[in-house]
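Notes to self, non-specific serine/threonine protein kinase:
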Amino acid sequence: MGSCNFKSEDLETTQTFSKSQFQFHYCIGKGGFGKVWKVEYKKTKDSFAMKEMAKARILAKKSVNSVMNERKILSYLKHPFIVNMQFAFQDRENLYLVMDLMPGGDLRYHLGRHKRFSEEQTKFFISSVILGLEYIHNSGVIHRDIKPENLVFDSKGYLCITDFGIARVWVPDNAKDTSGTPGYMAPEVMCRLNHGVSVDYFAIGVIVYEIMFGVRPYLGKSRKEIREEILAKQVQIKKEDIPSGWSLEASDFVNRLLQRKPIQRLGQNGPKEIKEHPWFKGIDWNQMLNKQLVASFIPNEAEDNFDSRIQMGNDPWKDANSEAVQQSTLSLQNNSTQDLFKGYLYDINQNNNSMENTMKNK
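result:
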């Protein structure tokens, strides 16, 4: 056991950030370990999204590796179509992850509000996500939790990918990594088999199908029920089932993404074959990448695009007093427990300066 005379100054002594340097506005979301806030960095007046995660809950859920893995992955990913990390720091009770603010809210919120989107709007959404996935996959990472809740709109109406909590650097032997969201998980993940980048494209197929029909292709109340549904039948959109206003190319795109066998799935050989599918004919990928196109759907920033606003001070966790959380809270007094979170500190400015110095010295 570690010492019980833990002091706050023992935490990463080079840390230059604290919670007090940010003005908290309101909550824009809730996650497995805490809340996501809209904040303002007082020094620059810039607005960000801050994920505040309770260490006690992380420990109780045995998820230290997950949150540290997300921080590590985000430290070397930076792209216009992902939600980039700006800062990361900690105090005795919490981890803080400061990210780009996406004022348009997530796709799930807007699906619930608007019910359906047109084919052209959907194509624009998916083109954005494909560019994000192309970069992520070329960086050797699988996201593994692509779903409407993790796709968020920027101010121009482009969708960006967020939440890398269960993302992993790809390795050939990854059958044990079976985390994800039932309903969007590829069959090979459901069945605990080795998997690659095409699991993210299967999820894209589910999302487009969901927008087309208002329901996911495979339903069930549990992971087991959904797995049985997937194994029982191969969903295929037939010509006569295509909704009004949607094309044969769109249905073919979905059908090829929802293939149960990865080897038969569009995207198995990388993003190039996704971008070359006839559904994307006419898309100028360079203009998309540079965000030079006018989006067909742009959330109104003057409206409340978040459905999770709650007042500061409210405790959102029903299990906050559970025995596991209480024990984890007590253990935070130990240096050995706090050591589990060593290396969480991140400052994009220092990181960029370090990279520039490295390039100069080459």
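- The mean pLDDT is 87.
- The longest strand covers residues 22-30.
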